[in-house]
Write a structure and sequence with these properties.
Layout lengths: L6 H44 L6 H27 L12 H8 L3 H33 L2 H16 L2
Length: about 160
């Protein structure tokens, strides 16, 4: 009996496997872009609510500055979506836990919680942007990779 797996038959299978892998990586890249985009939108909405009733001018300044930084990230992500030919969507959901804490009248606890959440978000975002940069480079999305690398370096150097 002859071996049916000749080299000419395995080449199309290898190519098909490579194409499927690239498509899966692209889908993962787009999903992660959407996740970080949605997180930035939610952070923006939460900060808008927080700065409406600040307990101090210093608190307002810190979060107003962070709000502008986050808004610039939203615009950058929208630019990346355009670079890679994908569509982005905004979300309307609010952070229920932060909303509940704001309803309570314990501002010091709320501020400490918000500051800790902001630190956690920053760590998570740096990790997400690092993964997105790796995906973009692997997929050959040079413009997206450049923008993501700038973003990552900026976030790492920002206090």
């Amino acid at each position: 009996m002859e071996n049916l797996n000749t080299s000419s038959e395995t080449a199309p299978k290898a190519l098909k496997h490579e194409i499927e892998g690239a498509l899966e990586l692209r889908a993962l890249f787009v999903d992660e872009l959407k996740n970080i985009y949605l997180a930035e939108i939610e952070i923006t909405k939460t900060m808008l609510k927080i700065i409406k009733n600040p307990s101090s001018e210093e608190f307002l300044d810190v979060f107003a500055n962070h709000l502008e930084h986050t808004k610039s990230r939203v615009k950058l992500l929208e630019k990346i979506f355009e670079c890679i030919g994908e569509i982005y969507e905004e979300i309307v959901e609010l952070n229920e836990e932060a909303e509940e804490k704001r309803k309570e009248n314990e501002l010091d606890i709320i501020h400490a919680s918000i500051i800790q959440q902001a630190k956690n978000v920053k760590f998570h975002k740096i990790s997400c942007y690092g993964n997105l940069l790796l995906f973009a480079k692997t997929l050959g999305e040079e413009k997206a990779a450049y923008l993501l690398e700038e973003t990552l370096n900026n976030d790492k150097n920002r206090n």
